[in-house]
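Same chain as my last thread, 198 residues:
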Amino acid sequence: MAESLEKQARRFAHDISDLLNRTVTDGIRVSSLKTATGYGIIGAGVSKNRSTSLPIPITPMKKDAVVFLYLLHSYEPDPEGVYLTMTQSTMSLYTSAAMEDEQLIVGIDYARNPGNQFPGAHLHVAGQRDDLDAVYLVEFMVTEEMVDPRPGWEQVVKDRRARWEAIQLKAAVRRNQEDAAAALREAGWDAITPAVEA
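reply #2:
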């Protein structure tokens, strides 16, 4: 049986904290908050009194930060009420904790159901760099030499990406069970159709 939505949100927030603290930050805490409407948010410093995220200083060795991460995820139950589903997500890097528009380095926005002409996921880049949309945020900060990462950061990122891709695969299979079963049969697996309850 699946975990409660609140437990899934707490685990996701913990995983983000762990990823950041094992790569490019020191002691930050990302947390989750369920709202009265049943929806929820995940971010740094969110609480009953604060529904927006605080800037996260990117510095793993207690030095002065030169970049700051803003992240805020909004979630709700999936249509079956079983799994956590992100409805909106923002991750942005700034040159200051003030996070003013002119201090934006790069930002990634996602909306499951965008209410405008923009695509569901899009990238904001200060300056012109055509190759950035293939780079993940932690890797971007390290490869662009904005931060000195902790030793072993590459394996942490690789492990977390594999975990995230596994979760996405499970969600895709759940939505496309017949296609998933057909693909398994093509690969030599025995995939049988479950009995339908009368």
